Amino acid sequence: VTPYTHEELRTLASAHALDALDAADADAVQEHLATCAECRAVFDDALEAAAALALAAPSAHPPAALRDRIVAAARAERPAEAEAEAAPAPVADLAAARARRRRRLFTPARGLAAAFAVAAVAAAVFAVSADRRANRLQDERDQLAALTHGDASVVALRSGKTPTGASVVVPREGTPVLVSSLSSAPGDRVYQVWAIAPTGGAPVSLGLLRGGGQALLKIDRTLPAGTTVAITVEPGGGSKAPTSAPIAAAAVE
Amino acid sequence: VRDAATSDADLIARIARGDEVALGDLYDRHAGAAYGLALRIVRDGSLAEDAVQEAFLAVWRGAERFDAARARASTWLLSLVHHKAVDLVRREQARPAAPTDSLPEVADDADVGGEVVSRAQRGEIERALRSLSPAQREILELAYFGGYTQSELADRLGEPIGTVKSRTHAALARLRTILAGSGFET
């Protein structure tokens, strides 16, 4: 629970736009921004003012090679992902997938990628799709970082001890996302994602997924530590309450 | 030189479809401002390149989810550059001695890196900054370009944290008001 009033948080929104808050305050503000349109407007305005400040810094010529390096790095990211989408994991690719994962451990999204690498190693058979997930997650993390100025933690949903291909990404600040590479739901059924509060109570539906490909489900609520996220298989259209046992679940840290 | 018919938002939309040429075009427009900003914060050419590269790659990855209704593309890009640069400074613990100079001089050359900041825009920014109180300018300088957090600023300035918070807010709000009043658009 934040120690701040709405007025105090509105004041802090400016410093947040300057990346100038201490971590605990940044958390408090980000949490508040998720639910307060007034403060979000203050933050967005402050971000525009910060951009004007940025333009007060003297422009400078970067070395010519930087442009090529950026375009080459961008090119190197997309085709790899497209390839992984096209071809299901041949065993021969596992070593390459591992090598890619190792390289990714040294990127700025290290914590996130490492969390995913661990999940992938635990289920080598999913290695390439997990690698692809890590790619997507890294994208998501970067985008979240852009909008939320924060890091993210990742919790893999499991069936017993086995990772299932679904994970919850909880940014330190901002909107949680469920990332799924579950196979298609059987027949005309769907996957339904639920949250169960740390204190128990009725599961709250977070949304539906069809499966059969990469999917992102934005979660329009905060997930306090100890919240259980679970997935059940439900009739098309979803259910008001779970009608079957979860196929995957995990508690948010 | 800018092709005025193509907006930044158009470029972002093309980047979202994996168009490398659009990424290069966005770079050509904003690299000068982005590198200048990063350099000002990290004060090291190679770290500044890292910050700019990470920011453009974040644009590449996040373009399809960019919300043009919420912020201008240039605001988004510069906030990414700023965030990465401040991250680097804090991670390296290599923050140089606090700048004692005032906010940066406005560059005479408005065409560095093919950027789109006009001389008139720079004039507006400079005028707006001059109309802040010295204490307001100082706090924006230290927070935005120095990478200091609010509690670090309180220590450094010997002021209560509450004063630092309210002054930061007031300074940025005033800057915003002045720029809006002069019709400034980033």
**Morphology of chain B:** globular
Structural class of chain A: alpha+beta
Radius of gyration of chain B: 17 Å
Instruction: Return the average pLDDT of chain A rounded to an integer.
Output: 73
| Quaternary structure annotation | heterodimer
Characterization of the model:
With 253 residues, chain A is α+β, with helices and mostly antiparallel strands. Chain A is built from 7 helices and 8 strands. In chain A, strands 1-2-3-6 form a 4-stranded antiparallel sheet, covered by helices on one side. Chain A has a 4-stranded antiparallel sheet with strand order 5-4-7-8, with no helix packed on it. Chain A is globular, with a radius of gyration of 20 Å. Helix content of chain B is 66%, strand content 0%. Chain B contains 8 helices and no strands. Chain B starts with 7 loop residues before the first helix and ends in a 5-residue tail after the last helix. Classes of the chains: A alpha+beta (253), B mainly alpha (186). At the A-B interface, helix 1, helix 3, helix 4 and helix 7 of A face helix 2, helix 3, helix 4, helix 5 and helix 6 of B.
